[in-house]
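Worked example 2:
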Amino acid sequence: MQEDKVIGFRIFDYAVITIIVLLAIVAVFQTYQISHLNSEVSALSSAKTVVHNSTNESFGARLTNIDKPLNASDLSVINDAPNAYFESAAQRLMNGSLTDQILVVPANQSLHAGPYIYNGKPTVIYIGATSCVFCGENRWAMALALSRFGNFSNLYEGYSSFGDHNLPTLYWADDNYTIPAGVGFGNSYSSKYINFLSADYLSPITQGFEIQPLSYFVSQASNETYLKAMSFMNSTKQFQGTPFTLWGNTLVTGADGIVFGNSTPTSTTLPLTYETHAQVFSQLKNFNDQFSWGEYAAADVYIAYTCQQINDTAPICQLPAMKQLISFIG
């Protein structure tokens, strides 16, 4: 009977030890998962200026209304956005209350390369790719910023590539997303203050992200204006990936904001991926969530760079919070 009790206790002890070991293994595994996820989020957040490789990424399947011109209502969300939204976003940016990461580079740290003057006006130059996820997010902020100095007669619904998150974006022109390769030059933008010269590398967005060196953009230039602009960007030797932009005399070697929705992105999930164009326009129009505040704040940074180059002559440059941001940039 005593022997039975001893055996019973041993079995109980072994069971307890086994459970403890299993719980320890689970805890270590969960800690590893959390650490790994955090490192992936950190990597995504710091990926503003690298050439993205979409190899082995899972592919989406969305082409809904691709290349469709924006209707008057949606175009108005961009062209007629209230200055009060830009002012409020600039205030949030300056007081540090934004959730999204917005890159604000002071003049003494920025890469100066211009200004690039064409037809007597400073020029915003954009180089990107229709397949690029960071270009896709960044065009929302760019369009809002450009709207403060002029307007678009047309913009088009688009997406980043299936292999690069397939998120809703704007295209500057009705680019053919199925052609093997090429560059889409041009847009429907006009302004009395600035020029806007845009170039997107075109590749089938049903594949992964693709880009070419800047020398390719030079070789494909559609006219003398774009040849000079692409050659100028190439001469800076600062290309690190897309988007690659010039605002006045400030080179921006990536997207200036990590604004992908209303929750924190992970390495595999960007909230914006699951939204429609209609939802994006609704958020930008209503200006009451994290995504819209972030996009307007990212636009504010581009606006501040541009205001410096036109001596603050556009009305947007005179808003109090914008003047504070312009002063900070120097």
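DSSP finds nine helices and 13 strands in the chain. The chain has one domain: 72-329.
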